[in-house]
Design brief:
The protein has about 300 residues and is mainly β. The chain has one domain: Beta Barrel (Porin). The chain contains one helix and 16 strands. The strands form two sheets. Strands 1-2-3-5-6-7-8-10-11-14-15-16 form a twelve-stranded antiparallel barrel. A three-stranded antiparallel sheet has the order 9-12-13, with no helix packed on it. Strand 14 and strand 15 form a beta hairpin. It is globular.
Length: about 300
């Protein structure tokens, strides 16, 4: 999926240099997956062959770092992130194990600005490209389906081991299993379950701990309009390791939730949602505004 960054990144780097207490899990405080970014698109795969695009625009901000007990640290910290992400989805005219078959490519561009203890920095560039070689969709009923796939976040983009960056310097393997029930005249609920198995960063000999992420959506359809809630939950269940040694008490957890509104215009659809950080451990508590537009680029004729 696209890469919006945990906003503690620059704060973590700065405090490491100063020898102060850090409130960051994952290397540099950067999550290899932007929790909450799936939103309206949980298990929303078109059951017809074609090429489709989703443009995601995001602004996130934070004004605090939180310790291992979920308490705000007395540190002057502010950050903001702008991102523009293109997701390309190919739907193939074939089936596998009774499921429709897809591939995906995610291209994120990010601008990160931080102000830590009066020291300001701005970094821009491409984040880690994510590829999904194979994704499967099984239709369970007229209104429900299950999707499964493997996202691979590649060690690409504007990464620098000596400063805060808009990318991470390692590969992250992310199996995903999602469910969606969407009645065009009523209830819409969905959840996407993701595990992040992060590889070691060869530049720093740091390995970010494995984690579980759940994005969710719940709402109601009113004709072409849909209103509801979206959000995300992150729970790191394995410790980070530095030079082979466990980094104790450094696991991260977070929860975000907020309102969502969507409009289906036929040829394209648009979704706007706002997610507020309500809980954070070893990271920043951030608020995020998302604007998402989905459009078909090509659809097989005769369907």
């Amino acid at each position: 999926m696209s890469k919006k960054f945990t906003l503690a990144a620059a704060g973590c780097m700065t405090f490491a240099v100063l020898g102060s207490q850090s409130a960051c899990a994952f290397e540099g405080g950067v999550s290899p997956f932007p929790v909450g970014s799936t939103g309206e698109f949980i298990a929303a795969l078109p059951p017809i062959p074609g090429l489709f695009a989703v443009e995601q625009f995001n602004y996130s901000s934070s004004n605090g770092l939180y310790d291992r007990n979920g308490k705000k640290l007395p540190i002057a910290f502010k950050s903001s992130v702008y991102s523009a992400t293109t997701r390309l989805l190919a739907a193939y005219p074939t089936t596998l194990l009774g499921a429709n078959v897809y591939s995906q490519l995610v291209l994120p561009a990010v601008s990160l600005h931080t102000d830590v203890q009066g020291h300001s920095e701005t970094h821009r560039g491409m984040s880690n490209i994510t590829v999904t070689p194979v994704m499967l969709r099984w239709g369970l009923s007229q209104y429900s389906n299950i999707t499964a796939g493997l996202d691979i976040s590649l060690p690409t983009g504007s990464y620098n081991p000596n400063r805060s960056s808009v990318a991470v310097g390692y590969t992250s393997w992310q199996p995903v299993l999602a469910y969606r029930y969407n009645d065009p005249a009523g209830l819409d609920v969905g959840v996407s379950n993701r595990f992040m198995f992060n590889q070691k960063n060869g530049d720093t000999d740091y390995r970010s701990g494995s984690a579980y992420a759940a994005d969710f959506t719940a709402g109601w359809n009113f004709g072409r309009w849909k209103v509801g809630l979206v959000g995300g939950y992150l729970n790191q269940f394995r410790d980070d390791r530095q030079n082979g040694a466990v980094v104790v008490g450094n696991r991260t957890r977070s929860f975000t939730v907020g309102p969502s509104i969507a409009y289906n215009a036929g040829p394209f659809s648009i979704n706007v949602n706002y997610q507020q950080g309500t809980y954070a451990v070893n990271t920043a508590k951030s608020n995020a505004l998302w604007v998402n537009v989905a459009i078909p680029l090509w659809v097989k004729q005769g369907l």
